[in-house]
Hints:
Blueprint (H helix, E strand, L loop, with lengths): L5 H9 L2 E3 L15 E3 L25 H8 L6 E4 L6 H9 L4 E5 L3 H14 L8 E4 L3 H7 L4 E7 L5 H5 L4 H28 E11 L8 H10 L3 E3 L3 H7 L13 E4 L10 E8 L1
Parallel strand pairs: 3-4, 3-6, 4-5, 6-7
Antiparallel strand pairs: 1-2, 7-10, 8-10, 9-10
Helix pairs in contact: 2-3, 5-7, 7-8
Amino acid sequence: xxxxxxxxxxxxxxxxxxxxxxxxxxxxxxxxxxxxxxxxxxxxxxxxxxxxxxxxxxxxxxxxxxxxxxxxxxxxxxxxxxxxxxxxxxxxxxxxxxxxxxxxxxxxxxxxxxxxxxxxxxxxxxxxxxxxxxxxxxxxxxxxxxxxxxxxxxxxxxxxxxxxxxxxxxxxxxxxxxxxxxxxxxxxxxxxxxxxxxxxxxxxxxxxxxxxxxxxxxxxxxxxxxxxxxxxxxxxxxxxxxxxxxxxxxxxxxxxxxxxxxxxxxxxxxxxxxxxx
Length: 277
């Protein structure tokens, strides 16, 4: 959208990459272009160059589903609460033109990574729409109550993909041990997001883990303890992308769980959508 290159698109087609969303609609705007390949392989990342926009961003295609689930409209105020490294913020700006996008990160090192990512992909003329903040997401609700129309909480998690595709068993064991601690943080982030959301606004919670404790249990806890939020059905989105992604069947209608499998190696990615009343 911001650095369109017909040469790059032709090159991708030559390498047997194809558009993930071939029919533009309200759910898949033409400006949001994602190319995928059915054959396994790696595509080189572009290096950061001052004053020059990158032509593409590499991410797991399942990550786009969290942005699609938000259904952002032009002019809305959007918060990406745990934004680094920045892929979902970039996808948000590809999807629509928000009146404000606040891309927040808590960790100082990741905050600078986030800023560099946005500067690498977003024209300077549009940076005025973006606020890059260094805040604890758990405090944003108290600092900015009822400010946002849409909020994405792509929460820190045990990141199953990083060890599902790794032979490092020690790292896998450490991730599993951290899960009980993470769910408490995830609940705190969601409570903060609900405070920061205006009545009638929507939030999407996402993780890249298969852990029930970090996914279903977190959302069920919020629904049981917060009387001002309701679950939002995601089955229309599931149906529209079911040819490209493999989904778990044992989840509720306000949840999606993308499972990687042969030929569809996207995920894992858990997504749930809530509405504040």
